[in-house]
Write the structure tokens for this entry.
Amino acid sequence: MERAITDEPQAAAGAATPDRGTVARRVYVEAFGCQMNVLDGELAVSRLADHGWERTLDADVADLILFNTCSVRDQSENRVWSRLGALRDRKERDPGLLIGVMGCMAQREAETILRRMPHVDLVCGTRRFHEMHALVERAESEGQVLAVETGGFVDVVRDVRIRPARHRAYVAVMRGCDHRCSYCIVPRTRGTQVDRALADVVEEVRRLAADGVRAVTFLGQNINTYGRYLPGRPTLGTLIREADRIAGIERIRFLTSNPMDIRDELLEALAETPSAAGYLHFPAQHGHDDVLRRMFRGYSRERYLQVCAKARESCPGIELASDLIVGFPGETAA
Ligand code: SF4
């Protein structure tokens, strides 16, 4: 579901020109879309902070305004187009201001953004944000930058201090998705699945816990297939057990599960790991087999309900959460 995940004021068109000479440079990020996008925004800021930048919640004083975008629906993109349009005059008055677009819309629209909005300096796709500082430097020295190549894994040793919540944190364990659900843009904007090494994820959780984090949420577009491309094929269950052993970690959650890939092994891991056993979010998307087939979801209504029953059996009292798409093309009243 997309919405502006920030209660910060929108990028104001009429702001005065900030004094760029003396103070640390400031970046303002407006994030749209899913938790993975929010985390990518944090990681991009973390890279800039490594080079002396500071995050600001006030767009008026920003040196760089960064839109972290979502392409789940037209509306999320239209909002960004209108934000960018609103910044045209300000950029004219203040040519030193930098404007960047990252995330799924940047990946999908790419050079179209630079053509339609010539006052935009940087378009950074879903697999290049870890180079944010270098890309900003290039935009300043060479002019408009387009960075949308999708190869490889975005491996950022994050500054764990940069996170919006004191005791909670998101941790990316993989990127992309190998499924092809018919309504979903993710495989096109985030590419196919690439897994992050188990040791790197565990180490990041250890550093977060040492910095006060008590609850971690592991993120992946289809997190149940985590480890498919890693040597020794560790699973999400392996990761949960490892994270549960880290001192300070009291709660483990993970998003998002495709019911098609939920295996008994995961439910056994949940049953053995109290810190992870309380909640399972796995989108059904629909309750009718014809529609599930046209969605290319790969499971039936019956299979979905079997997973619900198995989860409740393995983890008594577990909370089950789901998403549903209503009005899918061709849906009948029945
Ligand atoms: S599993 Fe999820 S992310 Fe992957 S294609 Fe389907 S809806 Fe999109």
Notes: DSSP finds twelve helices and 13 strands in the chain.
